[in-house]
Each structure stands twice: as C-alpha cells, then as structure tokens.
Amino acid sequence: MTPGRPVPPPLGxxxxxAEPPVEPAPxxxxxxxxxxxAAMGATSAGSGLRPLTxxxxxxxDDDVEIDIEYCGLCHSDVHATRGEWGSRPYPLVPGHEIVGxxxxxxxxxxxxxxxxxxxxxxxxDSCRECESCLEGxxxxxxxGNVGTYGVKDPRxxxxxxxxxxxxxxxxxxxxxxxxxEGMDPASTAPLLCAGITTYSPLRYFDVEPGDVxxxxxxxxxxxxxxxxxxxxxxxxxxxxxxxxxxxAAAELGADRVVLSRDPGAMEAAKAxxxxxxxxxxAPHDLNPYLRALRLGGALFQLGLPPSDMPPVxxxxxxxxxxxxxxSLIGGIAETQEMLDFCAxxxxxxxxxxxxxxxxxxxxxxxxxxxxxxxxxxxxxxxHTPSEKxxx
Amino acid sequence: MTPGRPVPPPLGxxxxxAEPPVEPAPxxxxxxxxxxxAAMGATSAGSGLRPLTxxxxxxxDDDVEIDIEYCGLCHSDVHATRGEWGSRPYPLVPGHEIVGxxxxxxxxxxxxxxxxxxxxxxxxDSCRECESCLEGxxxxxxxGNVGTYGVKDPRxxxxxxxxxxxxxxxxxxxxxxxxxEGMDPASTAPLLCAGITTYSPLRYFDVEPGDVxxxxxxxxxxxxxxxxxxxxxxxxxxxxxxxxxxxAAAELGADRVVLSRDPGAMEAAKAxxxxxxxxxxAPHDLNPYLRALRLGGALFQLGLPPSDMPPVxxxxxxxxxxxxxxSLIGGIAETQEMLDFCAxxxxxxxxxxxxxxxxxxxxxxxxxxxxxxxxxxxxxxxHTPSEKxxx
Lengths: 391, 391
Description:
Two copies of one chain form a homodimer. Chain A is an alpha/beta fold and 391 residues long.
C-alpha cells in the first residue's frame, strides 16, 4: 500500500456494514461487532459531514479503547471528505488529532490504564518490520503506514479506518500517545498532527538556541511552527503576504515579520535564515524564500499543493549548498517526545472549540482561512448513536 | 561581488594593457609589469581560442609563481570564452584545473618551495574574513570568491584574473594546493575542478562503505564521481540515457548501470540509492531520480542549466524526507584533502592530452560529448610569448 493512497470501496458496497472487510477476513479477525459510537462523517464527496454511527472493534489483546474528548480539524480532513484528493471510501469519518481518556484496555496492555489521558495522531499502524518502522519512523513505513482514517487496516481484516470525529476509537497500544497530565485536552489535540508535522523537521534540522527559523504561512501548521521554534530557543521570522497578520505573528512569539510581497523586505532578509518551514499548500514560488536562507540552509515544504509548483532555481541551491526538502508528520516515539516537549515548555495550539452541528460551517471557514488557528470538535456535542452502524 | 558574475570591461578598453586596473589602483599595487607568458584565450565571444601573451604580476610577499605543466579543459571554459554565460571581459584566458611546479616564491612564503608539484583550482582568492571563509568554505565567500579567470581581483588592483591555458600563473599561497609526489601531473589536473566538485557533496553527505551512490551523467564530472565514490567504499549506480555507456561505466568501477529511459529499470531502482550526484547541465526531469532515493536521501545537482528545470514534486520530498540540493566546487582545505585522498586511493581522471593548436577542435568535441573524459592541455605546446602583452 502506498502511504496516503486509500483504496476506494467496491462498487455498490452497502453502507450498513460495520468496518466491512474488503478482503476475506483472516481466521483471527474479531468476530464481535464491537461498540457502537456516534460520529460525524461524509457519505459522499458532496454530502458534507452528517451524523453516523460507527461500530468500533472489540479491543484485542494489544488494543486501547479511548473515550474521545476532543478532535482537531485538519485541512486534510476537508480535502479527504470532499474527495479533493481523489476517490475515497465512503462513509468516511475524518479526524487525526485525537485526545481522550482510556476506557478499556486489552489483556496484553500494561503501559496504559483506564482513565489516563492519551492521544492518537495520524497513524494507527504500520508494518512494524521494515527499516523505517524499526527506526521508529513509522510515518515512512516502506509498505505504507496505516492512516487514522480512510485506508485499509491489514491487521483488522482490511477494514477501512475511521477517525476521531467520534465518541470512541480503538487503537493498538503501539500507536497510542501519553498526554502528560496538566495539559489541556482541547488545545493539545492539534499537536497530534499540526504540532508533530512542524516539530519533526525542526528536530531533524537540529534547531538550537541562536538559530533563525523562518515560517511561511500562518495557519494551523504555521502557528505551531512559530511556538515550537520559539520553545526550542530559535529566533523566529514569519513570512506573510498579509500585513494584517503582523500583530498576530508577534502575539505568537515571532521576533520579526517579513512581508513576502515587499521586494525590499525580502532583499533585506537575504541569507539570514537557517531553516524555513513552509506550510503553504497552494502552489507558490519558493525561490524568494530560498534566497533568504544562509549557507547550508534548508527549506522544508510540508503542504502538498494540488498542482505543480514553479520550478526551484538550481543556481540558488548550488551557490549556497541549500536543501529543498519535505517532511511527513513524525514517528510515534518522536510524537511522544513532542508532547513531552510541549508539556515542559507550555506549548499548545490556539483553538476555537466547535460542536458537532457546527462542523460544516467550520470547514467553510477553514477553506476561507478564517480561523485562529485550529478548530477542535468537542465530542460531548455528538448525537446519541443509533442502534445500527452506518459505517 | 557575486560569485561567478564577472564584471564586463569598460567600453573601448585597449587590449594591450597587462592585467589592467579597472578601478584606481591602490597605493600598494605592484608597479612591475611582471613576467610575460604565452597563453591561449578568446578576444571576443566569436574569436575562438588564439595565441595571446599575458603579463603575470611580479610575485608579492605571499605569492607563488608556478610553471604550469598541464591544465584541464572544463565545460565551463567553453561557456565562458564563447560568452554563453553572459558578457565576459576579453581577452579571456580560461583554465582552472592547473598543475605545475613552483618557479618562484614571495618573501613570506614558507610552505612552498621551488620545484614542488602544486595545483590551482577554481579559486585564487576570497575575502578571507566572512563566516564562510573562516570555516574554510571559500567557494561560498559571502562577498564573492575570486575565480581563477574572468573576474576582478580586488587584492591586485582590480585586474581581471586570467587562467591556466598559459605558461605560468601567480597565485597567493593560501590558494595553492600541494600535489602529492607520485601523482601524474596531467591526469591530476582535472581533480582541481571535476574532482573536488564531486568529492565535496559526497563528503558533505558523509558517504561511507555500504552506502549506495547514484551518478547521473557520465562526463567529466560523472566519471570522477564514480571513481571517488568507489574509493570511498560505496556501491555505485550509474544512470545513463545511452546503452552504449554501459561498458564504459563498468570500466570506471560502477557496480550497476540503470538505463534512465527504461521505465522498468527505473521502477526496479526505486528507493535503492542513498545519494545521487547529478552532473547533467541540460534541463531534465529530476523526479525519476528522486524516486530512486531511499528515505532521507539527497540529490545534489552540480550543473547549472541555461533554462528552467521541470518542477520537482514536493510529494516525493515529503513522503521520503528527501533533499534536493546543490553544491559548488569545494574549499581550499577540502581540495587539499581530496588530492591527498586521490593520491592514497590511486584516483585520477581519464584524460586525452591535447596541444595548444588542438584546443578549438577539442572544444567542439566537448560540446559533442566526444571525450573520455577530460581533455588536458600540455602547456609545452604553447607558442613563445611575444614581447608585448595582449592581456
């Protein structure tokens, strides 16, 4: 399986089957239908989000069942549910920024206990055997990681994974994170995607006090990049096309703001930055940002634009030995490290809590860029699950 | 001064002045006209190479005067003398792969002695004060390095530097390399550009035994990349569009050859390479090569195409945390390290020696790709210098 390439459902698949096996179920597949839980999901690309009932599997020996308290709304949820990234299996319950408390554990689970605050991010499994997995880089699993929603789950009969806009979730203990007590569950939820996605390249580049970090784009990912880079001791420069974001950047802790449309300001920023975290998912010209990098600097692109980017100038890369790089979320151990780091440094996401009924308008506001900086679903506002599973 | 951006001469500049000061000469500028030497250079973009007489400066306290024995022909010499990289100051004597013996030294030179085998590469000076220079990365001098030919030399009255297709050259001791005795002068010459340009990114990536190195393009740079990577203990894979190069690649020591036009071969090479040295200077699609990189791999582009490259796919960079990078020659200390490494491992360039009268046809053959793998000028074949300097 290729990461991020979910398998479309068979034609004519009925909606009523809970976590339908799309391949013959192995002999050890769980027989039980599991617990029904309320969820919000899409039944087609055009359906918007609507109430559904999910049947979660009965916890197996290594499983942790979690009562979800909050789930962050990631821009990729919008793309996935609306079918903007290609065909998806429906019904589809998105959400991979999950914080909740342990409800039940399987018989082999010793490291999590009922009532503990835990998190689940973008991954719920991987092959566990390839070089990447053995190095704790499950996000780069060579056989394809198992995303938290919308992909086949080989260890669970090939069922399509369903995400965190729901009352509960069941996840193998190896993919459950410990949320340090004292962290606010709602504003911690976005750390599981937006937080780790920006933390990982900053760590990979080995950002230290005194380094200068540039952040392009001040949305869900960008605002986390500013906070985390500051907590790492870096000087932070925000590049923005909008003068109106200057004050907001300063509030987040940015040391300087550079207006990317101002050629003089961009010229003044030339060769001044060690590493740039580019969070803009629309096609845009990277060369002005590459010019801002010092010798040996790197630009990490985190967003995947829907069409080609303008070409990067090899001359810029050659003349200052720059690297144009990318980075994908983070591994499980690194995600735990990030949570501990954020707890230690008091880093959390700036959020706006929404209830289930407000999800669709929250999506519209996300598309319009009208959120500072992350919506988080309060799962207490979900409906009561029906007696029959929709998905 | 921007590296590689030579300053055009003032209009109407007479050709007879030796190393003309294009800015008012400083008070300590050498008064002497220096020694006349035979050279081959261009007097205009269309002139081809023709016999000229250069007046080299009298050695200053820190200077080393070198009797040039051999000078490699680099593809950039063709671009520069033909004006293909923008306007150049003429007359222009190219050549930055220089090996010869010390003829005279200035009064402050203690580390070089008359008769020693030495080399000069692409740089003859830099600011010596910026962070890059202090780190031994003179090629990335923040104020612009001083190239061996065609640029203003601030410490020598702003004279335009003239390269190694000549009988002698005078260079500050800090930019003179020691060629280990026992190395063949002719086949060592190309190491000063083609060698260091490929050695530096391989070292920067920290190539070790067991790593897999890919080489794209099997010309002057590519054949050095194969030899140096093999000497570093790597497994070497050559990507070529021409089936006829398979045997040649094997002769150089390559372990495998992948035909880049064969989709099946490229698919089989997927995620198998740690670092790729791309030596192709024409615009080409890098995405097939990026697909061949393992997690955390890097592609170093060394050639500067005359027009835009097709865009790189950010998704490839993101899904395997790849780096698309560039690299520019190497610093002086690293160039010395490279020469010592090549001496230790018996690495030299595969060359064809040409005489002065054959330079223009050698250029035509280089443009046609008809050389295995580097032409080297034998300076014994130069004419006798006139009594008056042309440049």
